[in-house]
Amino acid sequence: MRSKFYTRSFLILAVILLASSFYYLPFYVSKPGMAKELEPIIEVENGYEEQGSFMLTTVRMGRANIYAYVAAKFSKYQELYPIEEIRAENETDEEYNVRQLHLMATSKLAAIETAYKKAGIPIDYHYNGVYVLNVLPDMPAHGKLQAGDRIFKVDGKEFMSSDEFISTVSQKQDGNEITLTYERQDKIKETSITLKKLKETGKPGVGITLVDDKEIEVEPAVNINSEEIGGPSAGLMFSLEIYNQLIKADLTKGYKIAGTGTINSEGTVGRIGGIEQKIVAADKAGAEIFLAPNEEGAADSNYKAAVETARDIKTEMKIVPVDTFDDAVEYLRNLD
């Protein structure tokens, strides 16, 4: 009898523990991710080889269950964020993931622009329409469009950019019906939507947030296989790896160079989240140099947080402040 009691108690406890692991709290938890070499990820056609390596750094981010929450509370380099700090208002998990992947795609485009401009190579652009990031609740597009849809026609007419789409729709009247042609999972579909006046602009709309869906055409061709890595924070390191394959002189000079930072088409390096976790990840991967956004010397810059973390974990990795792509290139050219 006692044996059966213990067995039953154990099974009940196991079920409770299993069930609680699927109960998510209103928090996200981030922890050190990885530092991944970029040469296998980025390939410039007939590009030059390098002796060292550029590495992107990541954080692992996910919804916190009870166990992840407790672990983060007792871990120095795990951070908890209220859900509203990570996801936009009314944004679903699917929309959040789509937004992160699109931010990565935008980061790739900016990195290619920056690297090819620096190398003096011409760039051509091809616009494919607009890309749906979010569908607002209680708006006409809700239930008809999804995050990730690519819209390329309004009432049968193609348009080239988000500005053209917004202009076409806003010229119509509240209550008018429009037909949108879009692509979802490689299938072309159509939907009719009745326009509704938007609170923000006072003009008719369908109730989506959107961005341009464009491609860059360059010669030599470049391919970036980032798989399921999301977010914009690899932009700086993407641009350095592409540029290094385009030019004869090797910027790595045999060093393992990690870093982080957004990049725009003008080559400006921007702030990112989770710099402390990325320093830990880069140190574990054996990086010798880490490029960090300087934010023009701001008191709470990524660079200063990176220096503090590096000091705390007693790494010999050198932390280098950069405000622009050119800053990073100049520093690397002056390496021994």
Strand content: 25-35%
Number of helices: 9
Round the Cα radius of gyration to an integer and report it: 24 Å
What's the rounded overall pLDDT mean?
88
CATH architecture verdict of the largest domain: 2-Layer Sandwich
Poorly predicted ranges (pLDDT <50, ≥5 residues)?
none
Question: Could you tell me the number of beta strands?
Answer: 18
What is the topology, as strand order, of the major beta sheet? 4-1-3-14-17-18
CATH top-level class of the largest domain: Alpha Beta
> What is the 3D shape?
globular
Number of domains: 2
**Fold-level CATH name of the largest domain:** Ribosomal Protein S5, domain 2
Structural class of the helices, strands and pairings?
alpha+beta
**H and E order:** HEEEHEHHEEEHEEEEEEHEEEHEHEH
Biggest sheet layout: 6 strands, mixed
Rounded to the nearest angstrom, the distance between the terminal CA atoms is: 76 Å
User: Helical amount among residues, as a percent range?
Assistant: 25-40%
Active site: 233, 278
Family: Belongs to the peptidase S16 family.
Catalytic activity: Hydrolysis of proteins in presence of ATP
Domain Lon proteolytic: 225-335
Task: Describe how the helices and strands are arranged.
Blueprint: H1 2-21, E1 24-37, E2 42-44, E3 53-65, H2 66-73, E4 79-82, H3 83-86, H4 93-118, E5 123-135, E6 150-154, E7 157-158, H5 162-170, E8 177-184, E9 187-194, E10 196-197, E11 204-205, E12 208-218, E13 222-224, H6 235-246, E14 256-259, E15 262-263, E16 269-270, H7 275-284, E17 289-293, H8 302-312, E18 318-322, H9 325-333
Parallel strand pairs: 3-14, 14-17, 17-18
Antiparallel strand pairs: 1-3, 1-4, 2-13, 5-6, 5-12, 6-7, 6-8, 8-9, 10-11, 15-16
Helix pairs in contact: 4-6, 7-8
